[in-house]
Automatic annotation (TrEMBL):
Residues in Histidine-specific methyltransferase SAM-dependent domain copies: 13-321
Name this protein carries in UniProt: L-histidine N(Alpha)-methyltransferase
Annotated organism of origin: Croceivirga thetidis
Membrane found in the keyword field: no
Gene: egtD
Keyword Transferase: yes
UniProt entry keywords in alphabetical sequence: Methyltransferase, Transferase
Lineage: Bacteria, Pseudomonadati, Bacteroidota, Flavobacteriia, Flavobacteriales
Enzyme Commission code(s) on record: 2.1.1.44
A GO molecular function held by the record: L-histidine N(alpha)-methyltransferase activity
Enzyme class, first EC level, given as a word: transferase
SUPFAM superfamilies: S-adenosyl-L-methionine-dependent methyltransferases (SSF53335)
Pfam families (UniProt xref): Methyltransf_33
Record-level GO BP terms: methylation
Length: 322
């Protein structure tokens, strides 16, 4: 079963890579950054001083945990806390700890694409917060939304932290929010972290750190292609490049070929040519403001309940209802 799922996942990866590298201009999806190495690199990114997002959201949760516990538990005696893309749960543990110390009835249902991440999260929760009832679910956001469903018999609080939604272009984000809405009942809440527009230099620094961790993270997609699809990308021929458009709030990551080269992808029986300075677009990290957030919510049929910001207004967590 596990093997089967892996094979299907591999063939989706293979076909998306074929499509992306034969398109013009070339592109690869940022969801393929995350294997064991990519997870580790992302942990390092979250610990970098330039990557302000994590600290900001950590502060927001820390300072508002009591208010959040009230909102989540309001008028119900039990609820389920779902989390999409839970990762290591570092930020969520602030809430889990507070709720469990206050004796609030709830269960925690983290969802992640990585079974490895879920296993580690479950082990650490059992150790650090043994009173928290945890139920892990492996899968993509889209698969698991169906599982979350409207049939769930308790109030659902759906957490989607870290501005993970920023990987989606607005039309995709609206579509995703619509699917979330469809999984919600009256009274359910969606709690979503969304990184804010700010000084463009601050954003560029966060996505182009001096130590080169983000560059290594970006190039990890090429390493995966080399390892999993028999590729022979020379990583040194590619540079990490970040641009930010302050008008649209879109940060974009590229890998840029410094020299002409030919890459062989054995598993796809495919040869790919790069001209000098040809690009592969690998990620978008969208930045928001209140107007854009209201527009997205409105398009998806969600309404804004309230929001929480850090002191610098770098980052906001929004609460939506159906
Ligand atoms: C996990 C999508 C929120 O876009 O900020 C970090 C990923 N990419 N540095 C982001 C990422 C480069 C991150 N998200």
């Amino acid at each position: 079963m596990q093997e089967n799922t892996t094979q299907i996942a591999n063939s989706v990866f293979a076909e998306e890579v074929r499509k992306g590298l034969t398109d013009f201009p070339k592109h690869l999806s940022s969801k393929y950054f995350y294997d064991a190495t990519g997870d580790e690199l992302f942990q390092q990114i979250m610990a970098m001083p330039e990557y302000y997002l994590t600290n900001c959201e950590f502060d927001i949760l820390e300072r508002n945990k009591a208010a959040l516990a009230n909102l989540f538990g309001e008028e119900v005696d039990d609820f389920s806390l779902f989390e999409l893309g839970a990762g290591d749960g570092k930020k969520t543990k602030i809430l889990l700890k507070y709720l469990s110390e206050k004796g609030v009835e709830f269960d925690y249902r983290p969802i992640d694409i990585s079974q490895n991440a879920l296993d580690q999260l479950e082990a650490s929760i059992n150790l650090e917060l043994p009173k928290v009832k945890i139920n892990t679910l492996q899968g993509t956001y889209f698969d698991t939304l169906k599982t979350i469903g409207t049939a769930h018999n308790k109030r659902k609080i759906i957490l989607f932290l870290g501005s993970n939604i920023g990987n989606l272009l607005h039309p995709q984000a609206i579509d995703f929010l619509k699917q979330l809405r469809a999984a919600m009942n009256e009274g359910d809440l969606l709690f979503m972290g969304m990184d804010q527009k700010k000084n463009p230099q601050t954003i560029l620094d966060a996505y182009n750190d001096k130590a080169g961790i983000t560059a290594a993270f970006n190039k990890n997609v090429l390493t995966r292609i080399n390892n999993e699809l028999g590729g022979d990308f020379n990583l040194d021929n590619f540079i990490h490049w970040e641009v930010y458009d302050p008008e649209t709030g879109t940060a974009k990551s590229y890998l840029v070929a410094q020299h002409e080269c030919k890459v062989r992808l054995e598993a796809l029986d495919l040869n790919v040519r790069f001209k000098p300075w040809e690009t592969i677009h690998t990620e978008i990290s969208q930045k928001y403001d209140d107007e854009v957030v209201s527009w997205l919510a409105n398009e998806a049929g969600l309404s804004l309940v309230t929001s929480f910001a850090d002191e610098k207004n770098y980052f906001k967590d929004y609460i939506f209802k159906k």
